[in-house]
């Protein structure tokens, strides 16, 4: 049923503004429970069929410090936070200061006035301000300040024209499991919120559109999708060391993988992580590790070892702001060079980059297959926003999962081989692989340069041949690597390239450009290494300018692309490195200013 | 027909190197215990010592400098039916890999760990290793005693020391170590005094210093506290305690970690075999 039809049936008064897309921010101190409101709203929106996307901005500490959550709901699929916030719930003044940059001109602010009303200047700037003593109401009637979250949820629901019954249903679903007391207190908080609205808020500010009843869509972060993809892709050995924003993967797997006979091991450091992973992979387990930049730095020698010894392993690299400790909870894409080039020596490696939670699931399965088929390290390059923001998406397609283990020999296959060589020179560079316990597959697997049997060799002819053998696996693998996807009108002369969480902002920027009369198209690059040069070249051939959008200072992806296409002068960089994700309109503005100044010249 | 495979290479050590003795007794122990070559994985470290896997007929894995223990643990967890033997130098294990050593003792995986202790970095031509005595090549630090360290870590379950020049004792200790780990009792740590004739020839000195604790009347290798006390007394007297110094009971890593009787390496990971249970997990995403 279309949105319009639904509106008609609901008989909406015409003066209430109908919104198909809304963004809400809830800010306060860490420990205020702002994320509870995000979760409750998410459930309410999903129950009326809307798509949602949320992002949580927390500091790398448990309590205190400004924290906020942003949730967006829309009648169409969304993969980023919108340019502006429509409603801000602020539990303190700092939350208003922190959020103001993002507010739309007509934003509504619900301010917790328990310690006094909000500075009247905000009202004079055009915002609608409700001073609601959220904390006081909660403390007086329920003895616990934390119930201010549920009160805020009630007010938000009313402001957006959500039915009271829907809000109650959501609250029941969440707290029924937590016992009668919790449920009753929360229901009471909900009615406190409604009472506040009855005497202070005359009508809802707008009405959020409905898309129907609860859909079949699921809610997933990129990290959860990677973890599930690993399990479904036959992954049975995971080893990690806690690090934001990668830890969620280990925590998702820890209670689940052992139920399938698998292992989740927390090691003493990332040196142990990668080497334990290599041991398990060598012995026949489908293996994955996950880390962020600092952990990858420690793993670097091990990644080269996987390359030289030809051991299949998947490394999830969840980028955050670097170098050193950087900003652990903030978004950046500055480890592109690190994953593509990090290590001494030369060896084949693959770097793939999903852009949505659905792709995180699917491409993790791909990564496991590619690693085993070509016996090399495969990086899944993530970024903090992709890792930790939630998307509502179609359920993961379990029936599409295929497990391919390449030239892993069975005992039968091995029996028919007259002389087994672990590093046999072959057409595609991939040699037959055995695992310990097979009779006749005995061999040496080593990081020393070696001959076909795996025995140490410094012979120059051998080095030349075995180096070729390893490197040519990369050519062979290309047919299996995730190709880029092009969005937007094919005749467009403005091109945009980006990856990871920039998928969403770029797609929306295309629409904004279109509205302003500029046609642009987007090449979502999904294999960062080796670059699929022909695909890139044919995209660049069709446009006048390519904007490479990435979250780093140097334009790392742009420089890789420049080195692989003929028209390097067509490539321009749009870079952001302040720790926050791109907003669609930031990309739009950057593209426009360049295109317009180009026309002027 | 059974496939043929590589022929082990000949050792590359200097004539007289203690590592020959380690190789000989390891071969003997494996053959006397009738452990199949296909079920044995030897993980080498980096150093002169860390080439021992090339001289054996089995599955060999040459790991990175200092990383043989995590590698071996990964192998064991993927397939606990294997006999997993990690073998490397004192620099490899007590310097660059010392963190893993401590954690392996604490973790108690059922693998054997043989350290060829020569008080020096042989392969890089004679710099002091963590076990070097004061005065050796400018060393000013007190030597690291791995046996005392191993004893002090609760959870360690097998601590022994042999001397490559005493083959009878060493072969016996190797067999005990392999039996300890192969009966899933955990981590069998065996330090072998293995002189480097080229950069630190300690044969004569060590012959005078070694002291076989198992030959001492009343010595109880099952009592951690008295074992530590006795070993420490000997160290203060400039003796080197050898023999099976401690064997205790502690749950092994695999026992506490693995949930299936089928090794991970052989589990059915096909989507068909697991689909209904994956579907249940998918439902939790709603
Ligand atoms: C990361 C790293 N650092 C340094 C080296 C160089 N290196 C090779 S062997 C070795 C020391 C070996 O000493 P030890 O482990 O005692 O073995 P030995 O040769 O005495 O048997 C060093 C430092 C290396 N291979 N890797
Ligand atoms: S240098 Fe020393 S440790 Fe190395 S092989 Fe020669 S004697 Fe053995
Ligand atoms: Mg040494």
Superfamily at the CATH H level of the largest domain in chain A?
Answer: Pyruvate-ferredoxin oxidoreductase, PFOR, domain III
Task: From the 3D structure, determine the CATH topology of the largest domain in chain A.
Answer: Pyruvate-ferredoxin Oxidoreductase, domain 3
| Through-space gap between termini of chain A | 49 Å
Number of domains of chain A: 4
How does the helix and strand content of chain A classify structurally?
A: alpha/beta
What profile does the largest beta sheet of chain B have?
8 strands, mixed
Oligomer: heterodimer
Tally of separate domains of chain B = 1
Strand order in the sheet with the most strands of chain A: 7-6-5-2-4-3-16-9
| Chemical compounds bound to the protein | thiamine diphosphate, iron/sulfur cluster, magnesium ion
Output mean pLDDT of chain B. Answer: 97
Largest interface: A-B, 76 and 65 residues
CATH class of the largest domain in chain A: Alpha Beta
> What count of helical segments of chain A does DSSP give?
21
What is the first-to-last residue Cα distance of chain B? 53 Å
Q: Which fold does the CATH topology of chain B refer to?
A: Rossmann fold
Rg calculated over all Cα atoms of chain A: 27 Å
Second rung of CATH, namely the architecture of chain B: 3-Layer(aba) Sandwich
Determine the strand fraction of chain A and express it as a percent band: 15-25%
User: H/E element string of chain B?
Assistant: HEEHEHHEEEHEHEHEHEHH
